[in-house]
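Colleagues,

Please find the record for the two-part complex below.
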Amino acid sequence: MSPLLKDFLNKRIVVVTTEGQCVCATLEGFDKSTNLLLSEAQDRISGSHLASSYMVRGSQIVCCGLLEDGAAALGSEETGAGVTALKDTRNIVEDEHLVWKRVWASRKQ
Amino acid sequence: MLFFSFFKTLVDQEVTVELKNDIELKGTLKSVDQFLNLKLDNIECSDASKYPHLSSVRNIFIRGSTVRYVYLNKNMVDTNLLQDAARREAMSSKN
């Protein structure tokens, strides 16, 4: 078990995902592949409530930062505007269905 | 395991980590594990105005799979020694 996240247990953390999403939540648990169980998740930018319990798969995680005490959602200061969206780094092929469509068509010939 | 050991020797040194989502974080390397997940302390985002997401964050855990580069100071690494060790490990894993 990765002991690196142990210090963050039951604390408010910021989680950045490969989709470019930024979530603020309390870390309830984790495992060695960095799957995270979060609670009281809210969006970091807008501050809107996402879920009371939230599970993120390890492969989707970019980083987790320990939030310093008294830090509010960014939205309260900057209303989310002017904040650059984080880059999507998902490992996917765009329009993959088109590729498979062509593969399927060539098979039928 | 060579680079795991290598990063362990860099603990408490100042490094800059570039992530695949183009964020650059500078901080003190605090710990590393077998997946090369990193933990940095006192981080500073090189473009904080563009990415305020990590403002009011000092201590961060970075998943190893999302790291693009780790920038090191030249005097922190003995490249000849590292190259030697890498070759030796490659040789021993071949047999």
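Helices of chain B lie at 2-8, 79-94.

Comments are welcome before we finalize the supplementary table.
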